[in-house]
Design a protein that fits this description.
globular, alpha/beta, 221 residues, six-stranded mixed β-sheet, Maf protein
Length: 221
């Protein structure tokens, strides 16, 4: 049989589609984005709740990469699945790179998105335009057994003091994307999923995702 022909395609595709990819996130906004970003992937996408997994993983490391690694390894070990995890944050030049890895805790533990945005506006209220900033995301891909790979994605822009748009979450309504004139929350979901830091990190890890799925699918009986 021609290995590149349609007969081989019919044999291999069901095996790959049986392979599950665990995305180690319980954040509803991130989960929605990952469902769209990973939709073309030949795998079944699952989240911790789908598996009944309730892990507490410390995210107090000084870098996004280390935090993503900790989550990927913990969830992969607990599930036995190929696992993708991320850590991301907003870096504002006028604040010396804050909030950075503390983006989700910037206004204190338990603060919601609205309070975090309000606190950021307070911190920047006396700063002059422009207010350059970037979103940065590191993803970690862990295969069962502990091997791990990484990729980074960055979205450059600036911070506004007025919220604009209703399509995003987190700091999205305050972040105007460089060259677009719109905040991440004003972009249509399809466009955000091409330009965002998370989209770019997924684009960078994509070849390794496919290779890992191929390897796992080939190992299935």
């Amino acid at each position: 049989m021609d290995p590149d022909g349609p007969g081989e395609f019919r044999v291999l595709m069901p095996k790959r589609l049986q392979t599950r990819l665990l995305v180690a996130s319980t954040n509803p906004g991130k989960m929605q984005e990952y469902r769209a970003l990973l939709a073309p992937l030949p795998a079944r996408l699952v989240f911790p709740a789908d598996l009944g997994l309730h892990l507490t993983v410390s995210e107090d490391a000084p870098t996004y990469r280390e935090n993503a690694q900790a989550k990927a390894l913990a969830y992969s070990a607990a599930s036995g699945l190929l696992t993708l995890a991320d850590d991301s944050g907003l870096e504002v030049d006028a604040l010396g790179g804050e909030p950075g890895v503390r983006s989700s805790r910037y206004a204190g533990e338990g603060a919601d998105d609205a309070r975090r945005r309000a606190y950021l506006r307070e911190r920047l209220s006396r700063t002059a335009l422009p207010r350059p900033a970037r979103f940065r995301c590191w993803v970690a891909l862990s295969r069962p057994g502990g091997s791990i790979q990484y990729a980074e994605g960055v979205c450059e822009g600036e911070i506004l003091l007025e919220e604009r748009g209703a399509n995003g979450f987190g700091y999205d309504p305050l972040f105007r994307v460089r060259g677009r004139g719109l905040t991440l929350a004003e972009l249509a979901p399809q466009e955000k999923n091409r330009l965002s830091h998370r989209a770019r990190a997924v684009q960078a890890i994509w070849p390794r995702l496919l290779a890992s799925l191929d390897a796992l699918g080939a190992a299935k009986p």
